[in-house]
Amino acid sequence: MLQKYIQKINKVVILLTLSDVFAWGPFLIITAISAIYLSTKLNEEIVEVVGIGTSIYFVTRALFQIPIGLLTDKLKRDKDEIFILTLGVLLMGLPYIFYPQITAPLHYYILQFIFGLGVSLNVTNWRKLFATNVNKGREGIQYATYETIMSVATAILSTSIGVVASLGEIYFDIVIVSAGVVMMLGSIWIILIYNVEKRKNK
């Protein structure tokens, strides 16, 4: 019985879910504390700086999303999509590795651009791979399972990051850089999709 259940598990969906846990799990809490973090780095009107940085992220995401979607639609096999998705996850985590080096708003803006580019590479390809590989007739339970795992993981990560960050300003760098590393580790799960023999559009 258990063996039959394991055989029915959609490995691509599981791997994509795990990649999102790593790539997006730390994002909400890091976004929430980034203004506090930046206020310790910059002698600027921090709310304005964060507002401009957020705008740069969304504008970058908007500019690249459609071209990436057009490119993705032209790809007949999923190997290129997996590569682009992997690159996107790496670019999402990379900016947080460099947060401790921020000394001016321009540095933050550049990192927000890189993050926006990473997200544009991530979202379109992730959604296409997930939608392509989800089992017909089991879409509801697989999307629900994804959302449940994401919600629980985000709650755990948010609590953990929040507790460490609250220990003092000295821990901020550790928290931010660690979050970036965790995000980038999400690329490992994506690479493992190459090894799934029964995936669609192989």
Helical fraction: over 70%
CATH topology type: Growth Hormone, Chain: A
Q: Give the helix/strand class.
A: mainly alpha
Question: Which architecture per CATH?
Answer: Up-down Bundle
Portion in beta strands? under 5%
Radius of gyration from the alpha-carbon trace, in angstroms: 18 Å
Low-confidence stretches: 1-7
What is the rounded distance between the termini? 29 Å
Shape: globular
Would you state the CATH class?
Answer: Mainly Alpha
Number of strands: 0
Task: Compile the SSE list and pairings.
Elements: H1 2-8, H2 11-24, H3 27-41, H4 46-74, H5 78-97, H6 105-133, H7 139-165, H8 172-191
Helix pairs in contact: 2-7, 2-8, 3-7, 3-8, 4-6, 5-6, 5-8
Can you tell me about this structure?
It is built from eight helices and no strands. The chain is mainly alpha-helical. The chain has one domain: Growth Hormone, Chain: A (Up-down Bundle), CATH 1.20.1250. Helix 4 runs parallel beside helix 6. The protein is globular, with a radius of gyration of 18 Å.
